[in-house]
Amino acid sequence: MPSIFTRIIDGEIPCHRVFEDAHVIAFLDIAPLSRGHVLVVPKEERERLHELSAESAEALGRALRTVAAAVVKATGCADYNVLQNNGAAAHQAVMHVHFHVIPKEPGGAGLGLKWNAGAAGAGAADLAKRIREAMAPG
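^ that's the sequence the OP posted. Answer follows.
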C-alpha cells in the first residue's frame, strides 16, 4: 500500500505545497512543531535514506537548501532544525523517507531535544576504518 506521502504526491490527498520538482515535493506539516514546519519528501518511495537512488538523494540535498532558505525568509526565524529518522526504533512514523525543516522560534516553539552524548571510546579508530571500507567500491 502506498504511503500517505505517495498519496499526497499522486494528488489523492491535498497538501499546502511549498516546493516541487521532478524528484521532490515539500509541504507544510499538518501537525507542526512550529509555524513554518515543512516536510521535504522524495517522490521515490523508499523507507530509509540509504535505500534512495543517488539521483533522489542529490535532489533532496538541493531541495533542502532551497526550502530551508525560504522558511527562514518567510517565518523570520533564523534558527531551525533539519530532522530525518530511519526506522520505527529511530522514531520514523511514516515509512517513506522525509526530512523535517522545523523553525525554532526565539524562546518558543520548535524541536525539543535531549542529546545523550557518550564518549567515542577505544574502538573509534577501528569503527571509522570499517565505515570507510563499507564505502569502498566492490
